[in-house]
Automatic annotation (TrEMBL):
InterPro entries: IMPase (IPR033942), Inositol_monoP_metal-BS (IPR020583), Inositol_monophosphatase-like (IPR000760), Inositol_monophosphatase_CS (IPR020550)
Top EC class for this record: hydrolase
Cofactor entry: Mg(2+)
GO molecular function annotation: inositol monophosphate 1-phosphatase activity; metal ion binding
Enzyme Commission code(s) on record: 3.1.3.25
Pfam families: Inositol_P
The species this protein was found in: Pelagovum pacificum
Protein name per its UniProtKB record: Inositol-1-monophosphatase
Amino acid sequence: MTGLEDRCDAGARIVGHAGDLALDYFARRAELDVSAKANPQDLVSEADRAVELLIRDAIHDAVPCDGIIGEEHGCAAGDSDWNWIVDPIDGTSSFLHGLRGWSVSVALRHGTRTVAGWVADPSGGRLYRAVAGQGAWLGDSRLRVSEARLLEDGLTAVGSGHPDRMGALIAALLSRGGAFQRNGSAALSLAHVAAGHYLGFYEPRLSPWDCAAGLLLIEEAGGVSDPHPLDRPAPVLAGAPGVIAELRNLVATTELAEPVD
Ligand code: IPD
Ligand code: CA
Ligand code: CA
Ligand code: CA
């Protein structure tokens, strides 16, 4: 196996299997071993670790030379220019609380370009996928971002972050007639932007595995995003072309004097 097409076939198959395994764990989430990482809301369970191991083993079997960067098991350098960025369960908190706002997110990078991405929503039976230059898709349906021109014409998704800053952002959004939602999975939120369900998305700090696949979905669906380095945590701001300037302004006007690290 050498090229993008074979890797795309492998990626879709692997993410599908990962979603099935995650769903098995979701059905028995009350029995899982769970611990907190950085804070009491930042949870990890045996499901996160097991799903990532399945993905890593399957990538290694399919393309042994490729590198893998995963949230739970770290970085395994490869001998090729291809790297896979893996979030086995994005939205662990939703997952463990029995909500459907979680996903499996995998992106494929070639050099410094994201060339393919998959966001599976296993509890909704959906797999969002994109290939650079070839579009973003849900099944046979091509994804397109919203054509709205004002934030008051739809829903804006927000992530978590500094309480003052997010509070100010949400207040400003509401005061201009907009509305916010938070489904618990940044990757799934970005897929919903690509599908036109959300107008845009903002979170002040996301890791590469949270957003690499979702940002490609948005780009391939005709949306725009501010650049994310994809080698360290950074803000993610993305949306439909008609509202991105308004969303940028809103975020800028609610920024704190001190940068969020
Ligand atoms: C989290 C989710 C959440 C976002 C957090 C992420 P995780 O990822 O994407 O929506 O607000 O910043 O860390 O930990 O559930 O994989
Ligand atoms: Ca996590
Ligand atoms: Ca995540
Ligand atoms: Ca995760």
